[in-house]
Structure to design on (916 residues):
């Protein structure tokens, strides 16, 4: 019966390509920029509407001071197992606007490409989960196991309210495993399954001196907040890439033998990345394999943006009154973002930078799930069924997400996966983000197969 | 006769306050932002029209690849002496626009304040020179000595084409002394005469890595241009304020005894500055007197602006593809900006920053004129006549201008002076720049008195 149900679902998907695409593009056209509070509530309503249509019992759960969570459930008549599916309907900001070839919320079809903020990260995946469920329900009148859906609206700002929600809804969220369907493909074009993600600490540093920008002839008299941030930054990371904040690496755990074995199997075509990025070589790596290991294993400290003074055309001789800097730190297992925020603050104090204010904008702990977990096996099989090829399995995804809430707070196995294209090419977080119609439709089949395979696994 | 002529001119100024103010505000309403190429030609035409009306024989001299120079002459019937008056009709950019209380080119009257970009730097001074000349011509039918006017349109971007113009017009510009009427008042409210200015080297540094901003999870693989600029900057100046570029201080000459004597006479009410700027103390100075000396004597290296990555609201996890930085270096006698640009480039190369591109946007050599120069004496007397008080005489103005072209290329004595208010309060180069109607009118009397006194001095 179950194998038959997947075939029926696949047939339904094949027949409904056009309406599925239409609903996907409607969702894309609705901005939902969490960093700027744009369009969130309207987007949540569209997601709920799609879930209602699919036959998922759905609620919009408001979050005090936060963005609503769209939560849905479907009970299975044939299984007592439960799979919790996580995704997010919010997207990154669209700046710099002038670099987009079409409107960031136009959802323009260019041949097989669908160009839009959120096309690859991650409204494609959210829509796929809904449409896969619909495909089971509309054909068999059942789903292979109990499904719970948690679509949040703050993933792109570090999920600040999700920990509270998880803590307050442990009973509601009871499940056997979790699929975070917010992933992409490996850059070699194979499906990718991540058994854990890096954590994140996102901070804004500000320094303010004179009331406003001054004539720069006053430079001998007045402290320059831009110089202060430069000097503070310089104490934080060496040109060789080492983070210089005391204790930063204390809690880093090396890969287990099982994790290292996975690393050795990962294909990595470095030249594809380099070509896409217009670069000649990777940073501080002699070989592609060394670059891959750094990519998976290194904690990072990235300047995401700096703003100070006059940055228009030509010369303006000003001494800035204030300076602002955004940094993200990617963390590896088992670094703790709150502990490291304290370390950063202490570091600035120790180095004489009490004039630099630190504001934390996001915390995500790193996560990990064992390679032997049943949900990992189910996804491996599903990838072969949906795409006809073996997935690439990463012991750790270099990107971040709130996976730790499922692994650490709920104590569940959790995988991070999703549909193509590879984010190396999809311009996720950048101008001209896109997916393709084929990737979108295949992504529906993939999550349907994961649901189906996990229901039947031993 | 001469004393009588100044009195007649003063009377004329008193009677014509309203039309003078009207013409001044018309000029202010015309944007002339040299850094952005906005409104330059139209502004030059308005200046010429005002000069024509005053009775000055005026031409607009186009500059190949540059902004036109408005040049005028008036022959005296009573003197063979010639005074060359320099000024500029261009202004600084107006950003950040949101900090202006009224439109930057609205020339709004707020009580006695005239708020506008260019109100204090330096359309007030340009207008004053024209109206002072008119006041002599319309009353006595003569001027006390031959006058030559050189109003340029590139002062705010470092006068890039003025050196070529000066070299090609040495005959035309023959004179006995120069007044650069582009100054302001001392912060204690007294007129200020500067016997030289600091020089300037303005550069833009750029670093480009990936083709566009990337998802920051790629940080272990891809060089970050913002970090590169931070590390490069850190090699250039110490947190104690010392410029670390090899040879930077080699050509610095200490003040002569006569210059040092002037320094000792300068009043300096530090608390006025600090209050205006919203600060508690001066940078690295134990006393106000020490701050003043640093202000006059120190070469500076000022970050004027940095732009990279995402600087909007909230968190965006991007790895910037490029970063841009603007720096001005103020230079003291006898540092040479072209020599120091070479030193900067060599420094970056020596420190491994060949990936940082340097573009020079402005060069100005420092200048100096002896305290005993006749034009300095004439201005000293004129200040007493026009304002009823002794001027503050600076051996060196901490701001910059193309004064070296007059002192070094033409070999003339040159002073830098102008009307109030003090730039410490006038918001020159900043939002809400203003002068007052009283300062503007008094500034006409002052330049008239300088012309008159220099004509009669031994």
């Amino acid at each position: 019966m179950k194998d038959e149900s997947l075939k029926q679902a696949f047939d339904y998907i094949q027949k409904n390509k056009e309406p599925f695409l239409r609903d996907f593009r409607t969702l894309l056209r609705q901005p939902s920029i969490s960093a700027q509070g744009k369009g969130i509530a309207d987007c949540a309503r569209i997601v709920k509407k799609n879930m209602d249509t699919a036959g998922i019992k759905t609620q919009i759960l408001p979050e005090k001071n936060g963005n609503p969570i769209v939560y849905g459930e479907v009970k299975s008549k044939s299984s007592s197992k439960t799979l919790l599916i996580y995704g997010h309907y919010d997207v990154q900001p669209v700046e710099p606007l002038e670099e987009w070839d079409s409107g960031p919320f136009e959802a323009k079809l260019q041949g097989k490409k669908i160009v839009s903020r959120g096309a690859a990260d991650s409204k494609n995946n959210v829509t796929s989960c809904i449409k896969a469920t619909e495909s089971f329900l509309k054909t068999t009148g059942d789903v292979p196991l109990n499904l719970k859906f948690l679509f949040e609206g703050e993933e792109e700002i570090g999920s600040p309210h999700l920990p509270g929600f998880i803590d307050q809804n442990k009973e509601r969220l009871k499940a056997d495993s979790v699929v975070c369907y917010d992933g992409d493909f490996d850059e070699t074009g194979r499906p990718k399954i991540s058994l854990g993600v890096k954590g994140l600490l996102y901070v804004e540093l500000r320094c303010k001196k004179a009331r406003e920008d001054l004539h720069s002839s006053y430079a001998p008299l007045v402290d320059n907040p831009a110089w202060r941030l430069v000097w503070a930054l310089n104490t934080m990371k060496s040109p060789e890439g080492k983070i210089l904040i005391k204790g930063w690496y204390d809690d880093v755990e090396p890969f287990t033998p099982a994790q290292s074995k996975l690393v050795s199997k990962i294909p990595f075509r470095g030249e594809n990345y380099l070509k896409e990025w217009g670069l000649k070589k990777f940073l501080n790596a002699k070989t592609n394999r060394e670059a891959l290991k750094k990519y998976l294993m290194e904690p990072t400290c990235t300047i995401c943006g700096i703003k100070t003074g006059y940055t228009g055309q030509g010369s303006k001789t000003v001494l800035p009154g204030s300076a602002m800097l955004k940094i993200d730190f990617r963390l590896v297992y088992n670094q703790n973002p709150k502990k490291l925020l304290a370390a950063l603050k202490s570091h600035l104090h120790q180095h004489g930078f009490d004039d630099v204010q630190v504001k934390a904008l996001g915390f995500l702990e790193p996560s990990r799930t064992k390679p032997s977990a049943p949900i990992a096996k189910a996804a491996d099989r599903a990838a072969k069924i949906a795409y006809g090829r073996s997935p690439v399995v990463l012991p750790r995804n270099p990107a971040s997400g709130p996976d730790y809430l499922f692994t650490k707070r709920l104590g569940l196995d959790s995988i991070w996966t999703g549909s193509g294209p590879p984010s190396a090419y999809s311009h996720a977080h950048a101008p001209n983000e896109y997916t393709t119609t084929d990737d979108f439709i295949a992504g529906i089949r993939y999550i349907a197969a994961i649901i189906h395979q996990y229901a039947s696994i031993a």
Q: What stands out?
A: The mean pLDDT of chain A is 96. Chain A touches chain B through 92 residues (CB under 8 Å). Chain A has three domains: 2-196+367-456, 199-252+299-364, 255-296.
